[in-house]
Amino acid sequence: MQRNELCWCGSGKKYKKCHAAYDERLDEMRFNVFKGQVRPPHRVINNAHDIAGIRQAGIINDGALDLMDTMVKPGVTTAELDKAVHDFIVDHGAVPGDLNYEGFPKSCCTSINDIVCHGIPSSKVRLKEGDIVNVDITTVLNGYYADASRMYMVGEVSPAAERLVRVTKECMEIGIAAAKPWHFVGDIGAACGAHAHENGYGVVTELGGHGVGKGYHLEPFVSHDTHAGTGMLLVPGMTLTVEPMINEGTWKTYTDKTGDGWTVRTKDKKLSAQWESTILITETGAEVLSS
Ligand code: MF3
Ligand code: CO
Ligand code: CO
After folding, report:
1. What is the pTM of this model?
2. Which ligand places an atom closest to the C-alpha of 241?
């Protein structure tokens, strides 16, 4: 592209005043294809307008999660949680990203105990004392997506469950701390995975984080248990999720095909926990846009 043309990022600025130096820096880099290092394509970069949109979606998404903080209690059904999430998002002029996503029937995921992810809210499922539950919510505002989840301990839970929930949150935070510009996406998973293994836990690898923002599940894939210095280079303007799924026992999971076709469970029926944030790669590190 010519230096006086408008930049490919859509900022409206001249290329020479916008991403020209960035492209030159990438041109000088040598990506090690044997390590699976990938140069980030232009489509993964968000401009300031996109970032503002994703940030707004994140604010509504956080509001829906805050509502869950007040509602998750013994006796509540997951359908009641789902309805509250749906109404909150719609009342704020947005759309629940999960509703009708590839046929998903509800507005959020509620994943209890041995459910790893994608649990479907139901009027037949009532939370009970001792459960741990993840509520995962995605908000779409003006076409921009934000995706985050939190764990809840229902009443008093076992010390083992409490430790799993705490360490899983630490895995997410350590992963976010490793998400730095000009480092690799694999650095996130190396940091998450090491912390989980130090604590004797299994890390789910069939599913992972993802680019998010101008769509729901975008590149790059974010593994939570991999090698540093691998995968796509992280650069300013990228938005992605860090969402480790950490298991008390085996990392192995299964999807019950005779059931709803969505619910992912641990193979050994032991507990699983997950925390998720949407983050923005900045010039200096990562900024959390929804958590
Ligand atoms: N929010 C999930 C994620 O973190 C995806 C849920 S898709 C659904 O990527 F269809 F199960 F809702
Ligand atoms: Co999610
Ligand atoms: Co996600």
Report:
1. 0.98
2. 3
